[in-house]
Design brief:
Elements lengths: L5 E2 L34 E9 L6 H20 L6 E9 L4 H12 L4 E6 L3 H13 L3 E4 L6 H4 L13 E3 L4 H14 L4 E6 L3 H17 L2 E7 L8 H7 L6 E5 L2 H13 L6 E3 L6 H7 L7 E5 L1 E2 L4 H13 L9 H18 L6 H13 L2 E4 L2 E4 L10 E8 L2 E9 L2
Parallel strand pairs: 2-3, 2-4, 4-5, 5-6, 7-8, 7-9, 9-10, 10-11
Antiparallel strand pairs: 1-12, 11-15, 13-14, 15-16
Helix pairs in contact: 1-11, 2-3, 5-6, 8-9, 11-12
InterPro entries: Leu-bd, Peripla_BP_I
Organism: Nostocoides jenkinsii Ben 74
Family: Belongs to the leucine-binding protein family.
């Protein structure tokens, strides 16, 4: 599994108040150190809703730990005088109903001021209204579904919930970015497969529209069930169409086996997908035949910038047993976006509940140089940063092929 997350080009060193080295204790506790040693400080909690168990736990734990790191650093710096921040992490098991229950639990806690999450767009659809009803801000480091910020009517975008923000780019950017890469690489005929979930379907739809617009041909369009692990029927349907590549909308637990089964059945072409594939687990599941497979992911490699290297060093020093993975940097910036808003909204607040409405307003005004580059939000709550990277499996590991800003 790679020990890096992805970040955007042009990231600068962290703001001094949040760039202190993390304490050396191992992450995992839901309580962070007391602010400035003041035991009488009032408590405000930042929640996390992510898969902390199951197939996608590698990504969820990276998110949780990165938020924990941001909280510890803020407390050590006494970033919000008179207040102590604590972590309240909930496992959504990558399941919408479980995520909704987690959101309900956090919304019922009078000390919760914001939430980082979710990983899955399908889970976010259930979490958004629950947190919004309690005026609790939500910042996702990983959701890419366009409708989460612009509604279901693409022609008339309307923000569904003013409490929802994200630090990652969307399917509307990631899918076309992949389409342009393949088409400009000389690949003109592609088959698509998705897992019927919001994330996978959205990626494929965005990819397909751009690929056709460029002049490419979609020779086959298939789906799989995410709870299955045998894809013979799909491979058999695609193979006679002789695609030059397969674009997959989904995550690595299914994408890895799909790649392996494609190659074993003679469909020896690259599998490409979105950030849901970008993890070392994909290579483990796909095996040696994953060589040449590709994935896009938001931002540029963490270790390509000074701020990214600083984050990785601090994460390592903190002693977390799990890597920050693909979304660590984005979760860290999401937490710090909330913390920056709290510096204003909690300053003269009598309670967390009283500060929640102002936190929504103040979060929309946040602008700082974070690990993933400039952290700021547009009128829909989307990140203003639109840098992505294409990665390719080379020598049994993900290697960056191209980093660029989508225009």
């Amino acid at each position: 599994m790679p020990k890096r997350s992805v970040v955007s080009v042009g990231a600068t060193l962290l703001a001094a108040s949040l760039a202190l080295s993390a304490c050396g204790s191992r992450g995992g506790s839901d309580n962070s150190s007391t602010a400035g040693g003041n035991s009488s400080a009032k408590v405000a909690k930042i929640g996390v809703i992510a898969p902390l168990s199951g197939d996608l736990a590698a990504l969820g734990l990276g998110i949780k730990n990165s938020v924990d790191l941001a909280i510890k650093q803020a407390n050590e710096a006494n970033a919000i005088p008179g207040w102590k921040l604590e972590l309240a992490a909930e496992d959504d098991q990558a399941t919408a109903d479980v995520g909704k229950n987690a959101a309900t639990k956090l919304a019922g806690d009078k000390e919760v001021i914001g939430v980082v999450g979710t990983l899955n767009s399908s889970v976010a659809l259930q979490v958004q209204p629950v947190l919004a009803s309690a005026n609790i801000v939500q910042v996702s480091p990983a959701n890419t579904g366009v409708s989460l910020t612009k509604g279901e009517d693409a022609a008339n975008p309307k923000r569904p919930f003013p409490t929802y923000f994200r630090t990652c780019t969307t399917d509307a950017i990631q899918g076309p970015f992949a389409a342009r890469y393949l088409f400009n690489s000389g690949i003109k005929e592609v088959a698509t497969v998705h897992d019927k979930k919001a994330y996978g379907q959205g990626l494929v739809e965005a990819f397909t529209a751009e690929f056709k617009n460029l002049g490419g041909t979609i020779v086959a369009a298939e789906t799989i069930n995410p709870d299955e692990d045998k894809y013979d029927a799909v491979v058999s349907a695609i193979k006679p169409k002789a695609p030059e590549a397969v674009y997959y909308g989904g995550e690595y637990p299914q994408g890895g086996p799909l790649s392996q089964q494609m190659k074993s059945q003679g469909l020896d072409v690259p599998l490409m997908g979105g950030d849901g594939l970008f993890d070392g687990k994909f290579i483990e599941l796909a095996g040696s035949t994953s060589e040449g497979d590709m994935a896009t992911s938001v931002g540029a490699p963490t270790d390509s910038t000074a701020a990214g290297k600083t984050f990785l060093d601090q994460y390592k020093t903190a002693g977390y047993s799990d890597p920050s993975a693909a979304y660590g940097g984005y979760a860290y910036d999401a937490a710090n976006a909330i913390i920056n808003a709290l510096k204003v909204s909690l300053k003269d607040a009598a309670s967390v509940e009283a500060a929640r409405p102002n936190t929504v307003t103040d979060l929309g005004k946040v602008s700082f140089d974070g690990v993933t580059g400039k952290v700021a939000f547009d009128e829909f709550g989307d990140t203003t940063t639109k840098v992505l990277t294409v990665y390719k499996v080379t020598g049994g590991a993900w290697k960056a092929e191209k980093t660029d800003e989508f225009k």
